[in-house]
Request: fold
Amino acid sequence: ALMDIKSQADQQVLENTKLLENESYFDSMMIRMVIDQFKNKNNVPLNTESSKYINHLIVQEYINEFEGKVA
Reply:
């Protein structure tokens, strides 16, 4: 599921790099991907807290890379 999310996110960012300039929009776009991949496509049950946590980690990684920060 995570590789599929990364693939989708990479594609979205490649098509529009300005997505990363608006972190709140990128965050809301990514939460939809996380829920879709885990719950709908892979039948992995996620509660709200888990969804938000996974999303936060993914979004932060993209933002850090965009800003040139090393983890």
Summary: Residues 48-67 form the longest helix (20 residues). The mean pLDDT is 94. Residues 31 and 55 are 6 Å apart (CA to CA). The chain is about 75% helix and 0% strand.
